[in-house]
Amino acid sequence: MGSASVKGEGSANCIYLLKQCGVVVGLALIIYLIFSNADMGYDFHWAVIYEKNQTYKEIFGLWLLRGLLLTIKISVISGLFALGLGTIFGIGRLSAFKPFNWLATCYVELFRNTPLLVQMFFWYFAFPLMLPDPWVSFLNTHNFEFAASVIGLSIYTGAYIAEIVRAGIQSVPKGHTEAAVASGLSTVQTLRHVILPQAFRVIIPPLGSEFLNNMKNSSLAMTIGVAELCWQFQQIESFTFKGFEATTAASAIYLALSLSISLVMNSVGRHLKIGPAKKLNLFDIFLSKMVVPVLFLIRILPGAMQYFTQKLRTQTDEEKELSATVSPLQLFLNRVFVFLTMTFKGILLAVIISILVLSVKGLINFNWGVIKDNFLPLLIWIYPAGAETGEFFNGLGGLSISFLMAVISISVSFFIGLAVGIARLSKNPYINTPAVLYIEIIRGNPLILVIFWVYFFSPIITGMDINVFWSATLAFIIFSGAYIAEIVRAGIQAIPPGQTEAAKASGLSGYQTMRHIVLPQALKLMIPAIVGQFITIFKDTSLAYIIGVFELTTVSQTISSRLMIYPFEFYITIGFLYFACCYSMSLVARKLERKYAD
Amino acid sequence: MRMTRKVVLLLILISTLFFAGTSFAGPVFDRVKETGVVNIGLQFNSIPAAFYNAKNQWVGFDVDVAAEVVKHLTPYLGKELQLKKVKVNNKTRISFLTSGRIDISTSNMTHKRERDKSIDFSITYFFDGQKVMVKKGKYAEHKDLVGKRACAMQGTTSEKNLANLFKSLGDTETDKNIVSYQTAADCFLALSQGKVEAWSTDSTILLGYAAKMPGKFEIIGDFISNEPYGMGLPQDDSAWRDAINFALQDMWNDGTYHAVYNKWYGPDTDYYFPLTEQIEMWP
């Protein structure tokens, strides 16, 4: 009987999957019909990707592959650095040594609350101005574009990883640490043998999605001239004007890359599950066999080291024939440890002091006059003087446009996210599949690509004259809708199933249960995450710079390209403006979180 | 239930087809004649072609030429036209034309056959050529730059021309040595900070930026290429293209063109660039 029910479940799953595939095929067919039958005013020429171009004698598909390799290289290197930075500063966030704690907090808050684009520009254009000349000329001849993009990405992603590591460590019950200390383990031993192994179980899943974000964010390296995937597809676009085809090819590649990363992530997640519920499929087992050599090394290394130290210890024991409980080696090691801790603290203080000195020095040399003269344009651009020349929004621009875009995007995408998030939880394949497709396709692509998509696609499909402002806003709406959908889904899933059952039992319809029982509670849970999403979108508005929307980054570039000599002042100022807005909003988010926690 | 779902799907399908079918933009000439509005795409970061001055006003050679073209279109469209300026950059100028967001693109655009596959061009209205700018006193000629890093703007013809020049001079690693940035401002910043040794683009753009820091930069060598600027126009609208061409020729004949030219590139300006050629004239 048991087996029969399992079999029934299996065939039901199978039918469901088939239905889902059917919906996907149906959607593909509809899209194909639209494209092949309707006159879009656009001439599709897919061969541009794989054919040898007559004018340039190049196969453009190869360019994409070259870009892909560079994207992978940047993502992997910056991912590793970010992991290092994140671990150090994540531990720092919990350190009892105050200066370390402050430094870690400043690092996390500063870099999480400014747009990556601005950071990238800062590292590339403004940071070298603080270095001595010989260093700068060294950097300039050694592919500084690549280095700056890796620095920018590592530091940005590292700040997010630091928070993940902190949360992971905090998730280990305090009793474990106390027990470890009570049984005589040192701080390092406690970290190594008690806390980190447990914390990593909590850390790894969000870490994976952070690496995924890091890969997607690497697309921003194109703005400082790194020829990665995003740069290459635009190169193809500018050579052939086949923007639609090039964008499609690039997003297919990004999607494949994202999907493979999440496949690995999910598999690792299944491995990490504790208890009898562990269900491993073939892929999981295959993957775990792949890492066997690494695991072997990890297992063998501590053993080898132990063997080595034991050999040392027996030698000394034989020589001195000591019967004391603490061996001299142990004493020596303890002293070394204390010494190392002191040096670490010393170095840390020196770093903090030098950062402070550098910032004060930078601020003293700061040309405040330039900022003062141009501060108003940075906030509102030429509003309302643009009215005479008929400019968009009477010439409004700068910070206010960034804010406006973020507000419009979040308000509209909230409703999209709500609908799609609920649709994703639906058991009906006709409703569920489009929702899954939308969420996964959007989340699998970098925002830049979504911006280009809307930008190329919206005029083709609507034939309307859309201002770049609306084009970018639409892209933000579509992008953030997918993320909010996932927030909504998590919020709804957090509501205990008993409540739904009780509601159904008391005679409420599905809609009524959703409307009166589930959603009110779920929305309350979602609020902090939605504020977080708003901060993300606000930071992301800086990307609209690429299609020439007059938001803060573009305005500052326009002004600084006229003055030309103060890039440092401008990047610091807009960095500060973004930070001030995002940080104050993140304080609100935290307050809300505490308010709704109980 | 199942029936209604199918009906809904069918309706969606039909409506999308219908929607897409009606989206085709009509001939530009008729539309402009009817609405009286011309949308012209202009850059905003290109000195002295189109940029924001110290008072944050949108000015430049291209801006003035665009205004004059619109005035000179009156006899051909039979009414006074209103100019609507639209901001474009290297990435957006062509797709704005193909999608009908702008009717004319006056934005440092070289007439190229590859580009002509997607859009049309007016007769040449400005004769520029690509040159190379370096820091003063560092390099004397193009050959000295072999193996050094140089930059260009992404999405421009100068990028490709520069790579060809370097290859012809014996540079084997042009992929590494040529860096492409998004804007002219980025290129100039990179050059002035020493991130690259040279910047190559159309000579008037170089002049415009060099004038920011007098005496620090110099232009070396001959023209790498001819860069005849045409006004980008929507594909296959010959009535519209004729009107623009006639307007340009009328501007030349009545002296407006020279007045605008001298205002921005005359001997008394920071961007002195002698007018050596004549626009194509149809008797």
Structural description of this entry:
The complex is a heterodimer of chains A (598) and B (283). The relative contact order of chain A is 0.09. In chain A, helix 14 packs across helix 22 and helix 17 crosses helix 18 (468-493). Chain A folds into four domains: 1-38; 60-274, MetI-like (MetI-like fold, Orthogonal Bundle); 324-365; 378-597, Orthogonal Bundle (MetI-like fold). Chain A is mainly alpha-helical. Chain A has 22 helices and no strands. Chain A starts with a helix and ends with a helix. Chain A is 78% helix and 0% strand. The radius of gyration of chain A is 28 Å and the shape is globular. Chain B has two domains: 26-128 and 228-265, 3-Layer(aba) Sandwich (D-Maltodextrin-Binding Protein, domain 2), CATH 3.40.190; 129-227, 3-Layer(aba) Sandwich (D-Maltodextrin-Binding Protein, domain 2). Chain B has a five-stranded mixed beta sheet, sandwiched between helices. A three-stranded parallel beta sheet of chain B has the order 5-1-6. With 283 residues, chain B is α/β, with parallel strands linked by helices. In chain B, helix 3 crosses helix 11 and helix 3 packs antiparallel against helix 12 (256-265). Chain B is globular and about 55 Å long. The model of chain B is unreliable at 15-26 (pLDDT under 50). The interface between A and B is large, with 69 and 71 residues.
